[in-house]
Design a protein that fits this description.
The complex is a heterodimer. Chain A is of the alpha/beta class. Helix content of chain A is about 40%, strand content about 15%. In chain A, α6 links the parallel β5 and β6 (about 160-170). Chain B is an alpha/beta fold. The chains are: A alpha/beta, B alpha/beta. At the A-B interface, α1, α2, β1, β5 and α6 of A face α1, β1 and α4 of B.
Chain lengths: ~170, ~160
């Protein structure tokens, strides 16, 4: 805010600042200047609101350290759903919990199927909306596609039919 | 703020100066916290619909259905089959020297030879099924799905294969 020089047209607060400056600088040349903090506070507030709004819109999806997601040119927005991940070392995680190695799971999928079914059964108690069959799927870009398609087959058999592949947007 | 309650000449100044320093401190801390805690990697989604063939959509039954099968025979070779209502329309083999080039050749093949055969109004009913092999990695599979989505084919499924190397 720039102070109006004429005392007549100044607002009361500006008038007060002008008076204070004149009193202080009477007889001597002032070396200090008044920093107008109002605009700074305005800018900070706008920044805080902008950051809060930006980060509260998208659901938080945690990726495992051991997973390098592939790049994609046509990604859509992330949806909130359970997360199944296959790490680079071949371990399968469901919602950050280790279920077992890919070899174990593909040969004896009962453990994973039970966990998926319990998520589906308990869906109503944790969510307002009906079970949509959506699941977020994360896998390392070097994972074999055959393993990925096998795990997708397991997901489909437990009625998770809308699989959201996590990718990095370019 | 204007001083009020003045009698005669004496004016009591009621202008209070608000101490802005703690306020600025708080806001700066908030900004720093939000910037540090933010996830800057943009994660997106590619949707895969695995219901194809199980229960046909009533809309699909009324209209012509176009099915595109992409079968990988190795990381650098794949077969494309476009069917309209079960009848073969186009049969193609795409191959190149490396996987990156294969993706490029596949994109050209889909853009040039598959997409023109699908009428614009049939895009929403067009399905694609990708069958990968053991030697194809997930990154390449995602690139394939990307090409289909770029060409407006969004009903994509991934079929499991057993035994193919």
């Amino acid at each position: 805010m720039r102070l109006s020089q004429g005392k007549v047209e100044a607002k009361p607060f500006e008038r007060h600042l002008i008076n204070r400056r004149r009193k202080r600088s009477a007889g001597k040349k002032s070396t200090e200047f008044v920093l107008m903090l109002t605009s700074m506070v305005d800018m900070f507030s706008i920044l805080v609101i902008f950051l809060l709004q930006t980060f509260s819109n998208s659901p938080e999806i945690i990726t495992l350290k051991d997973v390098n997601l592939p790049d994609s040119l046509t990604p859509s927005a992330v949806k909130s759903a359970p997360v199944l991940a296959i790490s680079k070392s071949g371990d399968i995680f469901l919602d950050q919990k280790l279920i077992g190695s890919a070899k174990e799971i593909t040969s004896a999928p009962r453990k994973l199927l039970d966990q998926l079914q319990s998520i589906r059964k308990n869906w109503k108690s944790y969510h307002k909306e009906d079970f949509s069959g959506e699941i977020n799927f994360q896998a390392d870009k070097d994972t074999s596609s055959a393993l990925v398609s096998q795990v997708m087959g397991l997901l489909t058999s437990t009625e998770f039919q809308s699989i959201q592949l996590a990718v990095l947007g370019k | 703020m204007i001083a009020g309650g003045n009698n005669g000449n004496t004016k009591k100044n009621l202008n209070a100066e608000l101490n802005l320093t703690p306020f600025i401190d708080l806001l700066s801390t908030c900004i720093c916290f939000l910037l540090i805690s933010a996830v800057w990697i943009e994660i997106g989604n590619l949707e895969i619909k695995q219901t194809m063939g199980k229960s046909a959509d009533p809309l699909t039954q009324k209209n012509d259905s176009f099915n595109l099968d992409l079968t990988y025979e190795g990381p650098t070779k794949l077969k494309l089959k476009l069917k309209q209502n079960g009848k073969l329309l186009k049969d193609l083999i795409v191959s190149a020297t490396d996987s990156k080039q294969t993706i490029q050749v596949l994109e050209n093949a889909i853009k040039g030879e598959i997409v023109p055969l699908i009428p614009a109004k049939a895009y929403q009913f067009a399905n694609a099924a990708v069958t990968p092999t053991e030697s194809v990695n997930y990154g390449q599979l995602v690139s394939t799905l990307d090409i289909l989505r770029k060409n407006k084919i969004v009903n994509i499924g991934v079929t499991a294969t057993v035994g193919k190397k």
